Automatic annotation (TrEMBL):
This is Transcriptional regulator PadR-like family protein. It comes from the Bacteria. It comes from Ohtaekwangia koreensis. Residues 15-86 form the Transcription regulator PadR N-terminal domain. It holds the Pfam family PadR. SUPFAM superfamilies: Winged helix' DNA-binding domain.
Amino acid sequence: MYSKELLKGTLTAIILKLLAENEKMYGYEISLHVKELTGGKIHLKDGSLYPALQKMTADGLLSFKEEYIGKRIRKYYYLTKKGQKEKIAYLEELKDFMITLNKIVFPQIKTA
């Protein structure tokens, strides 16, 4: 499992990418999906995931729809039009950052 410091700067990009691929997801579903996709190497804890979802909603990147599942209410998050546009910028910035970081930390690994 990676440290929360490493994940901190990538959480927005992870959420935007997953919601773009899956249309709508609830918080726990996002967490499970990330864990599954990474073979358990990334585990999004409630204390970081839900504040990120709230911030992204406040910033206009996400919206949500509440649905009753039995007697419980579940919040399904989805990308807004702004979120769809910002996703491209976030992912490009992250990709460029990773290439740049690689040049410093692992210069022997060549990137395209």
